[in-house]
Design a protein that fits this description.
The protein is an alpha/beta fold. The two termini are 22 Å apart.
Amino acid sequence: MSDASTSPAQPSSATAAPVLKVNGLKKHFPVKKGLLSRTVGQVYAVDGVSFEIGAGETLGLVGESGCGKSTVGRTVLRLIEPTAGEIEVDGVDIAKLDKKALRDYRRQMQIIFQDPFSSLNPRMSAGDIVGEPLMVHNIAQGKDREDMVAQLFERVGLRAGQLTSLPHQFSGGQRQRIGIARALALNPKLIVGDEPVSALDVSIQAQVINLLMDLQNELGLSYLFIAHDLAVVEHISHRVAVMYLGRIVEYTDKKSLFKNPQHPYTEALLSAVPIPDPEIKREKVILEGDVPSPINPPSGCHFHTRCPYATEQCRVETPLLKEQAPGHWVSCHLR
């Protein structure tokens, strides 16, 4: 496995002072067996991830299911405690803060969950769900809180008259708007979207994506947008990071990624994206084999077991994330 000596370099964004800076982030889950629950291994869910997000910027995080995208998002927010690495919010490493000190930074970071139904308490009204953060952080009570919640409802395209309705009385798209309103309640700088549109119909996806972009332009929000749909990522993101088996393998602006992918895994992902033009033919890259287990990942480059260009060096030596072109970072020995 990679250690501190093989942690990727810190890719930088165009923004001088990033809202979020992650360096060498790792999250390993212990595997326990037996009556004594002895640790017999580790799940290397996130294994040395580095990136930055500037003010008003969206970083798309993409990859196959199980590659560690959601774990990155939740670890960045410290909903899951990191095994190692730095998580800097406005220059402060929140990975080292205790719960009391972290409380103030939680107001700056919020999350929109994937499932717009299970993420809402079915016994609470929509207004109480959105207003709960205001109460927890002692921002507003009573009539003031109700007025603030009504304003949040209108901002995300809901009616103030729906404050007393329960989650099951809303459609999937409306429930996700409730989740967005809840995320906005504390005026955060950073919002992590954990596949926030994957459970919605295509037409509703477009509405929610446009809402998120409008809110970003209006409020200057920064997004870590986690998704597996590359078409959605291309639409909303400024830059894109591609993950494979716990590591970032390519990281650049969206134009460079979609027009000139450098990593073989990125090429394979893009080749699977359908083109809405029957006249355009794209050669599909078919990856052989299955994704290796994160409990026992391959040595060297994790992708070498499925890469059509793998060499002996790929099998034994871990490639670092290097700047192959200005702003274009690639983790590949062949680049």
